[in-house]
Description:
The protein has helices at residues 20-32, 71-82, 100-106, 127-143, 152-162, 183-188, 209-217, 234-243, 258-266, 282-289, 300-305, 316-325, 328-345, 348-359, and strands at 5-9, 37-43, 53-54, 57-62, 88-92, 110-114, 146-149, 167-168, 197-200, 224-227, 249-252, 270-273, 294-297, 311-313. It is of the alpha/beta class. The protein folds into two domains: 5-169, Glycogen Phosphorylase B (Rossmann fold, 3-Layer(aba) Sandwich); 183-345, Glycogen Phosphorylase B (Rossmann fold), CATH 3.40.50.2000. It starts with a strand and ends with a helix.
Amino acid sequence: MEIKKIAIIGTVGLPAIYGGFETLAEYLTKYLGKQYDITVYCSSKSYSHKIGEYNDVKLVYLPLNANGVQSIPYDILSILKALRYADTLLILGVSGCISLPFVKLISRKKIVVNIDGMEWKRNKWNKFAKWFLKFSEKLAVKYADVVITDNKVIQNYVLSEYGVESSLIAYGGDHAVGAPLSKKVLSQYPYLDANYAFTVCRIEPENNIYIILAAVAQQNKLPLVLIGNWQASQYGMDLYANYSGIEHIHLLNPIYDQVILNQLRSNCLVYLHGHSAGGTNPSLVEAMCLGLPIFAHAADYNIETTENATQYFSDPDELKQLIVNGSTESLLANGLKMSDIATRRYQWKGIVEQYAKLLD
Length: 360
């Protein structure tokens, strides 16, 4: 029996160094690398050291960035190359789906698209970019053989907006590993020796960093450790300037050492999740898999992900009240609920099995 050939398109590449889609590709190849003949397209701009194989799959490098405006030609070029040999194309994101009407004219290859989380809604895009992404989403849903959505809210949106039934598959989070704080980390960050709230995210408006910082600044019960790319935008630099001088707020630049990051995250008293866009957010699922107590923004995506079983905020005062009134007992119960949901819904082995059924 001939092994099915699959192309994974739309990520920065492997090994995973960027975000949710890259981690998805990491685990798809880890579990399916021997079952299928898989090729993953990678951005040569992101890898100084290039390897030809990883997790038993082939890696093909393209000389374009996988994010920003170059993601469009990057994805389109990946699609065109994959059409030469692949039986199934798994496209993660909609940037290159502008090409799908043409692809369907010249090919009968199976197209599976994960449309991500309504990317066109994000505040960081200008008017033209939002229009383009919405149009690409429309074409992705119309021309894909299978549409994947990662959150029930987005699944409902696709059905109401386009009349298309999508396959609901979330993300796994059990790759997140808890670890005790080492002496080295405690010497570097001595404030971790007491209770603290924790957040790690990109510093973007839809992640509601302002709400988190303003809430923490208004109380002194619990300090905050917040890791993010503060220098990547004026928004981030302004927030850093306004809040970095507050004694119980610790604003850290990105930490790429996963061992250190795991220690900081897994030992917090409560995880603050401010994301209000993007469907099922990987960092939320990871926090749930770690069994962390969570206060989440009251976006419908987050309520769906956590089964309406945690505590939610929409403004600084609501979050401040959650922090001030949070007891040891309530936080412990919160973390246990999150862990239970994550065990049922967000394990990579089960996620990959769902993808495998759609790729055949």
